[in-house]
Structures are given as structure tokens and as C-alpha cells.
């Protein structure tokens, strides 16, 4: 049996990965905030290290955010990153 066939079979039979602490609305809010933050990072002059330093978070948290690993950050940490980058004083999205 080839390795590719074995991996494909394993993916079909494995239960889906889940994060029990996140409900659908929370996940939608996190996803929306992640998109806003990644756009702000893309247009800002700040690098990821500087953002992490200013927010008081480990660099890995910023990397996780940019990789879409929402379960590694709390909503409060995401809002902190948002406020660290956005200096216009606009309210935090949900």
C-alpha cells in the first residue's frame, strides 16, 4: 500500500479537529478580527517583532495569528494587538 493512499484514508477516518472552548459566533468574531489585524499589519510600518514587543506578547503569538491559529490567542490578546497597530482610535470590531 502506498503512503499517499494510507494518508488519504487516515484523513477520512480521523475525527475532525475541534476546539471545545470556541463556539461558532466566537469563531466568527475571531476570524473577522484576525482579517482586520492581518490587513493592518500588512499596511503598517511595524514588523511582527515590534508589534509583539509593543503588545507585550511573545512573538509566537503574532506568528500564530498570521498563520490563522486562532485557538492560540484569546480575544483579549487579539484586541490588544489591534490597538497596538491601529493608532486612529477607532473602536475595536466585535
Condensed summary:
With 94 residues, the protein is an all-alpha fold. The protein is 62% helix and 0% strand.
Outline the structure in words.
- By secondary structure, the chain is mostly helical.
- The protein is 62% helix and 0% strand.
- Helix 2 packs parallel to helix 5 (75-85), helix 3 crosses helix 4 and helix 3 crosses helix 5.
Q: Which helices and strands occur, and which strands form pairs?
A:
Elements: H1 3-13, H2 24-43, H3 48-55, H4 59-66, H5 75-85
Domain HigA2-like helix-turn-helix: 26-80
Protein name: XRE family transcriptional regulator
Organism: Halomonas aquatica
Counting helices, strands and paired strands, the structural category is mainly alpha
**Radius of gyration in whole Å, from Cα?**
17 Å
Q: Mean of the pLDDT scores?
A: 79
Strand percentage lies at under 5%
List keywords for this structure.
single chain, 94 residues, 62% helix, HigA2-like_HTH, XRE family transcriptional regulator
